[in-house]
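Q: Hi! First time asking for a complex rather than a single chain. Here are the components, and I think there are two in total. Is that enough to go on?
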Amino acid sequence: MRREGSPWSGLWAVVSKEAADHLTSARMRFLEVLVGLAAIGAVYAATQTIRQTVGSDPFLFLTLFTTAKDPLPSFVSFLGFLVPLAAIALGFDAINTEHSRRTLSRIVAQPVYRDAVLMGKFLAALLTLGILLAVLWLVVIGLGLIFLGLPPSGEEIARAFAFWAATLFYGGVWLALSMMFSVLFRQPATSALAALAIWLFFSFFWPIIAELAAQSMVPDGAPGFIAQAYLATYEPVFARIAPNYLFGETTLALLNPATRALGPLFLSQLQGALLGAPIPFGQSVLLIWPHLTGLVAGTILLFTIAYVAFQRQEIRA
Amino acid sequence: MTEPVIEANGLTKRYRTRIAVDHIDLAIEEGEVFGLLGPNGAGKTTTILMIMGLTDVSAGTVRVLGLDPARQPLAVKRHIGYMPDSVGFYDTLTARENLAYTGRLAGLERTRIERRSEEVLARVGLGAVVGQKVRTFSRGMRQRLGLADALLRSPRIVILDEPTSGLDPQATQDFLELIRALKQEGITIILSSHMLDKVQAICDRVALFNDGRIALCGTVTDLGRQVLGGGHQILVEARGGRIEQTLAAIPGIIRVRREGDRGYVLEAESDIRPVVAATVAQAGGELLSLGIRQASLESVYTRYFEEAAHAA
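A: Yes, that's all I need. Here is the structure of the assembled complex.
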């Protein structure tokens, strides 16, 4: 059965309304402060370290993002932690509060499809997250200019920009996840808890499970070096199911141009390579292309589940 | 006669374990006020959702202005203004902003939204509070805002689900007055309610729902005649003489019942109050009062289900 009319009609009305809501909400203020503090702290600590070791690195600016100084983690690990939190905060009550506020039946009675409602909410949250990250990115670059007194090169800007985009993709997965729960659970608290549980699971438990799973792949009685090879091959395979791991590898490849591979290599593959020499930007992107594809695929999968569930829901007042 | 605005044939909605709406037939004409009445859970809201294309139809067909709500939902919804049961708004937005969002969703132009929202808000008596946050609104104000929201797109059909539930008597009266005014403009109005007596005054025709079926459908007077028999109940208060026998002997009286100390209820085929007055006087009785009881939906409904229960 074909339905008539465009699924996009009304999309921009939803996007602009939701984005305006997000940008003016108290929740957003809270996130801004949290993320701003993290950025300033991490960059300040990084510049302290960099000043002491300044000299040889041609990609000095990128080390701003990746350098950690005890007790502060690097900016990248801050993001790996905070972006899921921000994305969950933006999405966990997207649909269920419309139910409990009893506004949803009024919205779907308008000449729009539910597609526009769900998609609009997703895009608005993604836009908000993008703005938040862009501001953060500019703050880091600006602080770097002040503290280091060096302008970034063109390639550094390109890599940093790709990093911004990758972070947004990473946020998209968590956003789709929390929106899916907002469709599946009627209580916002349940949906937030479910999303946070998954986030904790992937941050803390999945690495352990991946390691155990990789160990189980090692054949019985294999000699030590063979076992090592099995572990090195299979551990990333399992670990890459977690979006955090994908994000970690992505930032590694983008922000550390000397990264040539994200897994075990044969010695023969290293023949003729200048170890520690940076590879071109395009090659780094090629290296993480599967990761980005994986993140986008995960987003689409979760969004589809949310979409199907939302279409089947009966919206009574 | 023109084609009905809304037409349903054998419309059925099945949920996994139960049938919510069971083969109902409806034909609602342009410009009439049609009441879907019945207790909670009788299938009124489900019927409305199917008319709007908001839920799938299990069997049967429904057409709105000749369109199929399942296939052309956008076209159908463009013609319908809907006020859901216990309507909700975005509390942090003002009345005007809430309507503006509805208007943008409907794809109206900005100038049209501004003009129309001023119009409809003034019309429902919220002209003075357009800039106030909805958070501060009372139940009655929200309900009126809901009506304004339904009217924003200048629809041909307005569907109101339980528009008077939770309102105090005065607010209910005001709200019904608003609906009556809409009828003057030729807008087709469908309203559902479980408060039979409140809405009977404004409905041209009603459908009484029970357990997913339409038990009775027609004008209130028709239903009264159909179910209550005689259709006219004449109330007499009199004393002296052999009033009861005298009254029972009047041609056209079906039954005489005592009600209270000196009161009698006469079920009559037509309004024969003058004859009753003359008869009482001739018989030497003293007539204290004489009145007629309008057939009320409440009594129609109660009587109908009493009979249905007896028959079962």
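A: The CA atoms of residues 77 and 222 of chain A lie 36 Å apart. Let me know if you'd like any chain examined more closely.
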